[in-house]
Here is the input.
Amino acid sequence: MLTLTNIVRKYGRKTVLNGVSATFPSGLTLLVGPSGAGKSTLLRLLATAEKPNAGEIAWDGAALPGARRALRATLGYAPQAVDLPEDLTAREFALHMAALKGLDAKAADAQFGAITERIGLHADINNRISTFSGGMRRRLVFAQAMLGAPRLLALDEPTAELDSETAASVSALIVERAAKAAVVMTTHLADALAPQAVQVLRVDQGRVAPQ
Amino acid sequence: MMPRAQPVPQPAAVLRSSLSTSLARYRRSWGLWLLLLIAPIGARFMISDESGKGIVIAINDQLPVLSSAMLGVWLGIVVTTLLLPAGYIYLRANTNRRQPWQVEEVTAAPRVAMLMGRFLADAAVLLGTLGTLTLAGWLLGWLMVSGPYSPWRITYPLWLIAAPPLVALAALRILFDAVPWLRGALGDLAYFFVWVASLVLPILGADQPSSFGTNLLDYPGFVRPLKGGETVGSNSIQIGGVDPGTLKPGRIDLDVAAGLNAPGYVAARFAWIGIAVGLVLFAGLIYRPHRSGRKRPGHGRIAKLLSAGPPPAARVDAPPAHATRSASIGLVLAEFRLIGAGRLFLLLAMAAALAGTAGDYRHIGSAAALLLLVFALSAHAGRSEARGLLRLTATTATPPMARRAAFIAAGLCWSLVIALPAAVVRGSGEPLLLALSTGAAAAATAMALGALTGSSFAPRVVLLIGWYVYFSS
Here is the structure.
């Protein structure tokens, strides 16, 4: 379980998150709110991609930065924008990420095949990323986040740019994973996923509150 | 109702906007301030005394008398011969390398004006750096020159020699950005050849009487100032690292002013500025849009040969991947696979390994292997250190420094693997020792520069220059 206590995050003089406290238990947590409210910032903090200016983040009761390594060992993160290596194939990129996560290459290859099969990307995994559309890139970033058995998944709009059928496949995988892990995501499909969620948090004006 | 006339972009307004936004981006980048700081600090190491520490300019194995004018000439020549690749790297890897071309290229703005604005910004940055170097030259002159101290006599030759090549360099960068195939690795390779040619061509005109034509061949501008008033062709010139033991005692007194005022010299320097402006106009005329981010996979025979083929059938019930038994070995193996990604690399690696089994290994097999690794290492260092990807990879269990160490180890492994057939055929460990040193140096340099700049431009150019030095020595 991940907990935030009095988190403050500023960019220059602008305070994006101001004294945010929240708990992310096992299950699906949806983050909603207007554009620019700080949802992606909150996800970056959960994913240890950024540090707060003040406040405490704790994973399984141990505070960061001491517990950062333990958290990263079991984290799956899909940010909205990634500089994907255009000259690699999707499979090469996924195996690279698997190595960075400390996963067995053969098992990761098999799991990547299974995930991409379910989200309609498998036929293209041996193609270079430079041949991918926006939606294919989004699915690739999602697939690498799912590798291993992450206990915390931080997903930033994983279903954006996807057609409704593919978005449903991605959502189904997310809901499955949420049975065993804390999944925190921002999505424009909040209404459809809300029944599956253990909580829906609204991020607005630097604060986070249950919807 | 009459339709309202569509606004037409005014070239002057486009140029002004392109210039001011480029300058604003430069101003907000740490790289510019680092460059402006490094130039004056580095100036001290551009001038050598008899100890040979720093960059030596020797005429007939003698150092020149360091008058004010000679100091300006010295700094100018170091900039136009040895430091131009650093300027190229800076321009290719700086904050302006990313442009919003997806939206810019669909506007009606004239390309020439847009590129001219960028060119002026690039040139301003390089000339600004020359300005800080001039200030350092004044200080060095105050401490070092023999004879009368004159800031003007330092400044005039320094700017006359160095400014035109810097402006031309900015133009070359714009030209390379205008043509799709020069925007990447091929552009860096092309620049490498341009740079080598710029060092060789002046020698062709060195034995000719001074004229506009012969001086135009002297892009770095070093021949006439170092020939001074001497008989044409009688002086041997050395620039760069020189063994101090080979230097003769005493100093040679050059008539720098005679060289700078030689017929056609000043006109040729200004002509290079004109050529630079011409290059930018040409770049604007031939500008080709960026290709869409989504490329179609190739379908020809070669594409099939080089492609990874269809993926293996997926097992939908595959369990989540478990942790590897040795994360470090897994990481090195992953880096090894990615450095050698693609069948083309494997084909070329086999060719380099074969080339090493016959002939002079040091100049054929080892040079071929190193050249291949220059491209492979810089490509992977650049892609794995891209800022946008680091935001993702930094959140994994592997610290960035561990990944970088694995990269160097994997680069070393490739170097050894390619050298192995040569070692076996010769029954000697010498190829492996050579591969060990060159592979480690290349991998460490690629990673250090890739991490510093977040792109593959800097490692590729620096390693190409290093390769040339290795190949020709």
About this structure: The mean pLDDT of chain A is 91.
